[in-house]
Fold this protein.
Amino acid sequence: MATRRALIIGGSVGGLFAAHMLGRIGWEVDVFERAGEDLASRGAGIGTHPALHEVMRLLWLAFDDTLSVATRTYVCWDNSDRLIHEVHLQRKMSAWAPVYRTLRDNLRGPRYHRGMECIDVRSEAGSATARFADGSQARGDLLIAADGLRSAVRARLLPELQPAYAGYVAWRALMRESKAVRAARDILERDFLFCVPEGSLALCYAVPARDGDLRVGHRDYNCAWYRSADEAQLAELCTDTSGKCHGTSIPPPLIRPEVVADFRRSARAELASPMAVVVTRGDQPFFQAIYDLASPRLVFGRVALLGDAAFVARPHVGAGVTKAALDATCLATAIVGHGGDLDAALARYGSERQRFGDWIVGRGRDLGASIGMRPGGRARLDREELDRRAAAAVSAYAANADELSRLAVDGNIPGSV
């Protein structure tokens, strides 16, 4: 049988997992990435799960203490550093960049093409074709759309489907551990810290340094604070000093200084002091609008959606990278399991990942449901109710992490491909 060829649109983590998996089962693979530059500088902290570690192991890629930082307990403090709740739960936290770099640097067989913007796709009997902005085309037995939340491929196939804005943004800040005061390091060196101000949610933890250093004192601290912003407020946040609105996102250097200053003042007033340290002493914070998206179908002839091109769950689930790895594993496993019948394999992939995608999007909505919610009128919640809500939020996060950790032992990850 002739070697089959896959076209992968999108060279980020989802596309790289697909490239590794298909290359491992003998496919010829070409990856087309729209950006002309390397992507390693993008992304922030991520949570990992045993399922992700298992996929990396299947690919003979190390994912151990060389790529992650262990935390031992979820702890929740208020803005006076009072302990509200704790859950003993060990996690391994990492960052997007080292995961991407490991996948990218070990991509041997597949060809990786930068600066290739896909503008159209076509599925025909037994093949799929991609057309690019430079006028070139590529044809393969299968085309995988792994081009993220704003997928150009999905937009061609499902033009009516748009990401749904959740009504809040995630402010993110990163600080070198060496810049932290001793009091902040005492908690962030070992624990996953939460703070739940009324109507918002913040979390902070240690991650590998941007250069990969994992030595205590040389790592980074990552903070994410989910804060409500209606569409008008989002537009205001995305307006630069010249008055230009950049839509629903803005490059971090263009965020107005007064917006950053106001955010840092809010952090000092509302967050536990270790988080406030990260926000005020770290790199310039930036934000991203939070969306979710659930595709009603994943397979269109010989075109398949994968990763964030198919489903986007809110970051609370902490499993975007894990889901991309599972998607790629499921696709390769289905292809092997159905021998030469690629259409049957794609049908299986579509069915299995549809169920998981619908579940994970729903879970993200559940975990983010309280963000932005405030009591009616001018009344504020009393301390006892705030504590109850904070404890419930942390417990929900812990339960979610525990459930995702069971994926590897519940049959979702095959032992071999």
